[in-house]
């Protein structure tokens, strides 16, 4: 039976995720709508396995799909072509991974990146402002691919303790976003992060080792990991060695 979609007042808590619309409802995975988006709401949402996703002109829409796509750092598939790109990047002068040096620029690039089958972007100004506020509080981060002093790719993510949630990527050069994702995987592996949230399934993520798990299992892991001390968000070159030592697939 279809139930109505809750409209959240500014101070109202999120409904339990088991009230998310299911397959019998008009839009599976949708939990609630509202008009308020800020760092406090993002913290509360992510801590429960909820995230915002909407387009210009829409209300703030909150989602918690079931199943949930994740990437476990210890299941990351380092394909031969990407392995070669990482080895070249690691060894080349002028190539480096930076973290949080250009968060707002990374978000702007992600907003402008073309997406297959999409017109426009869901990274609207209110999203940029809210995640920038979260970044200023130390709970949102950018992983950046730099070549000869130029930002050529990257991603941004949310992190509560050791609960890590990937958001969006961009690339101005071949493999630049994949290099940033690989760096995030290597960083998370070094800090024993059990899963990186990828939200919804894509063929690209599946190819790299991502898989779907039940929403409640995902949320349980998030609740546990969010209680742990924050990760040290600094990339060490030795992380490349650890990642590249994994067996070839």
TrEMBL record:
Protein keywords: Acyltransferase, Cytoplasm, Transferase
Pfam families xref list: Leu_Phe_trans (PF03588)
Biological process according to GO: protein catabolic process
Gene Ontology MF terms in the entry: leucyl-tRNA--protein transferase activity
Class in the EC hierarchy, top level: transferase
Principal localisation: cytoplasm
EC number: 2.3.2.6
Subcellular location: Cytoplasm
InterPro entries: Acyl_CoA_acyltransferase, Leu/Phe-tRNA_Trfase, Leu/Phe-tRNA_Trfase_C, Leu/Phe-tRNA_Trfase_N
Region forming the signal peptide: none
Record SUPFAM superfamilies: Acyl-CoA N-acyltransferases (Nat)
Swiss-Prot/TrEMBL catalytic activity: N-terminal L-lysyl-[protein] + L-leucyl-tRNA(Leu) = N-terminal L-leucyl-L-lysyl-[protein] + tRNA(Leu) + H(+); N-terminal L-arginyl-[protein] + L-leucyl-tRNA(Leu) = N-terminal L-leucyl-L-arginyl-[protein] + tRNA(Leu) + H(+); L-phenylalanyl-tRNA(Phe) + an N-terminal L-alpha-aminoacyl-[protein] = an N-terminal L-phenylalanyl-L-alpha-aminoacyl-[protein] + tRNA(Phe)
Region (Disordered): 1-21
Domain of life: Bacteria
GO cellular component term, pick one: cytoplasm
PANTHER family (alphabetical): LEUCYL/PHENYLALANYL-TRNA--PROTEIN TRANSFERASE (PTHR30098), LEUCYL_PHENYLALANYL-TRNA--PROTEIN TRANSFERASE (PTHR30098:SF2)
Function of the protein: Functions in the N-end rule pathway of protein degradation where it conjugates Leu, Phe and, less efficiently, Met from aminoacyl-tRNAs to the N-termini of proteins containing an N-terminal arginine or lysine.
Homology family: Belongs to the L/F-transferase family.
Protein name from the UniProt record: Leucyl/phenylalanyl-tRNA--protein transferase
Organism of provenance: Comamonas suwonensis
């Amino acid at each position: 039976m279809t139930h109505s979609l809750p409209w959240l007042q500014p101070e109202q808590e999120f409904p339990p995720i088991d009230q998310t619309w299911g397959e019998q409802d008009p839009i599976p995975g949708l939990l609630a709508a509202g008009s308020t988006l800020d760092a406090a709401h993002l913290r509360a949402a992510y801590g429960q396995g909820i995230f915002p996703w909407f387009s210009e002109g829409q209300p703030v829409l909150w989602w918690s799909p079931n199943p949930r796509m994740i990437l476990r750092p210890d299941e990351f598939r380092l394909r031969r072509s990407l392995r070669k790109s990482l080895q070249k990047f690691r060894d080349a002068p002028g190539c480096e991974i930076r973290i949080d040096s250009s968060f707002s620029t990374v978000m702007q690039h992600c907003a402008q990146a073309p997406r297959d089958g999409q017109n426009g972007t869901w990274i609207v100004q209110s999203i940029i402002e809210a995640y920038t506020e979260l970044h200023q509080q130390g709970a949102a981060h950018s992983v950046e691919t730099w070549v000869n002093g130029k930002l050529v790719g990257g991603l941004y993510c949310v992190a509560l303790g050791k609960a890590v949630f990937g958001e969006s990527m961009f690339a101005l050069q071949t493999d630049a976003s994949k290099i940033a994702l690989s760096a995030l995987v290597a960083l998370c592996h070094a800090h024993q992060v059990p899963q990186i949230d990828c939200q919804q399934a894509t063929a690209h993520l599946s190819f790299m080792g991502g898989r779907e798990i039940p929403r409640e299992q995902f949320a349980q892991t998030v609740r546990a990991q969010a209680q742990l001390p924050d990760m040290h968000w600094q990339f060490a070159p030795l992380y490349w060695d650890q990642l590249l030592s994994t067996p070839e697939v």
